[in-house]
Model the fold of this input.
Amino acid sequence: MQQSSTRSNPAALLPILLFLILYLGNGIYFEYIHPVEGQMGFYVVSVVLAFSIALIAAFLQNRSRSFDEKIRTCARGIGDENIVIMLFIFLMAGAFSGIASSAGGASSTANLMLNIIPGKGVVPGLFLTACLISMAMGTSVGTISVLCPIACAVAEAGGLSRNLLVGVIIGGAMFGDNLSFISDTTIAATKTQGVEMKDKFRVNFRIAMPAALVTLAILIVYAAVSPASDIGPFDYQLLLALPYFIVLVLSLLGLNVFPVLLIGILLFLVSGMYAGTLTYASALSSMGNGISGMFETMIVTILVASIASLMRENGGFEAILSLIRRKAGSRRGGMSGIAFLTAFMDVATANNTVAIVIAAPIAKSISEEYGIDPRKTASLLDTCSCIAQGIIPYGAQLLIAAGIAGVTSVSLIPFLIYPFVLAVFVVLSILREN
Done:
């Protein structure tokens, strides 16, 4: 097996450990042990501050390399194609969410849906919608940006749990991100392992679809035993709801997320001004405010890319590979190692595509050494990165959803049914191996 030229150095992983202590540790302390009056515990320590301190720690490591060399390492990480694409999606998603909300599109669409969908079918219905849209768009971030405003408006109008509906949207978004042929994670997982997308899809489908069906069954049971909500009739303007439906149709047709969001922005601009809910000035202001709301997420993405690059350069990722080699004594052990490695990389980088790109060479080596089907390896890379990305409170998906919903990302975790169910099915698929 090909060995990496980078020496194993477990100490290189200390920056991410420091971040977890600062952010999660302080968040738990101020939320549950020593609450601060009038402030949510996980907002006491900014995620940007925690990652900034972790980045400083990463810079202080490896004294043999100059500061300028470390800056160039960070620049290469930030300049990665997937990072740049994600940053642009954040900008477009912020503008779309801002103008859609200001125009009244989200509330009109939600009220229209509530008038059509029976009250008890809203929760499973939103999950199915998110699954389909994410499959078509190939991006969980784009799906969350489109559907979360609707989920929030539905929750408010129908007296339902906002956290539950947003959690359902996140779960459906991760389902599509995991399986879509145009998803960056699918492309990264298949290309790095040398397999066809359709072959990886078949293997992946046997894990993701049962998990989705179990999640849907849970939501149906929840809806059936919950008290009926008074969800109608509600007033809406079809003109303001139409842009959302056009965006959804374009997504289902497989149009790239960028033109989808751009068309959505233009449609809301025209319909809002025609309906009188927007003026030229308020439209510009709302888009600017929406973009501003994404700044923290964009800064986190840049910081994480920098930290990951330094950790990889310093031998942190090679340390993980060495550990897997020592622990994995069979094909099942090798698959478990790939699953753990990918999930850990996602926890460390907070980006499922970047996690796959980083973990893929190591996973390929493990796959070859232990005779693991490369289609299975590609499936594990994609699925495990999506599981971790759909759960971590500082990932783009939860941060964007929490920002739109006006809640903390940690408060959404108990309602992320699909990612946890999917994790169970991944474990079962590994246990079935000899």
In short: The CA atoms of residues 23 and 46 lie 7 Å apart. The chain has a mean pLDDT of 84.
